[in-house]
Amino acid sequence: MNDKSFDFYQDHSTQFLKMALVSDRCKGMLNPDGYGRRTGKCGDTVEFFLKIDKNRIHSLSFVMDGCIHTRACCNTVVRLAEGKKVEDAWEIGPEEVIGYLETLPPDHFHCAELSMGALYLALADYLERRRAPWKKMYSSM
User: Fold this and answer.
1) Which of 22, 35, 51, 108 ranks highest by number of CB atoms within 10 Å?
2) Which residues on neighbouring strands pair with residue 53, listed in sequence order?
3) Global pTM?
4) What are phi and psi of 59, to 5 degrees?
5) What are the Cα distances from residue 117, in Å, to 69, 73, 113, 124?
6) pLDDT by 10s per residue, the chain, length 141
7) Number of neighbours of residue 127 by Cβ within 10 angstroms
8) Any idea which fold 10-128 has?
9) What is the Cα–Cα distance from 37 to 23, expressed in whole angstroms?
């Protein structure tokens, strides 16, 4: 049996701690080009807001209600997706989020899946709005 208790600050990677504690992208966005909201089985909810310029993700922010692991995953998604072409952002997966964080506990891998799911919904919303631009005028955000 392992007698060592888990020390959040000592046992997580620097990368995980940065992503868990940074708050600069934790905000909504008026008139986003794409919006996605997803709630996980755990009860955490993530919303992503996209601004696209010349087919690249120019700005990405999120609002979430959940645990610190979900927050770390959301911030990681922002770091991985911002600046990418829209079609390249579809290639990012939960595995990249987990790898970037280095020490996301296996029982919180669903947080990476939740965050990526919300991004995928925002990307799909952007593509739908491009096909029907008049819908953006009627969005609630």
Assistant:
1) 35
2) 56
3) 0.89
4) -145, 140
5) 15, 11, 6, 11
6) 455 677 777 889 999 999 999 999 999 999 999 999 999 999 999 999 999 999 999 999 999 999 999 999 999 999 999 999 999 999 999 999 999 999 999 999 999 999 999 999 999 999 999 887 666 556 554
7) 14
8) Sufe protein. Chain: A (3.90.1010)
9) 19
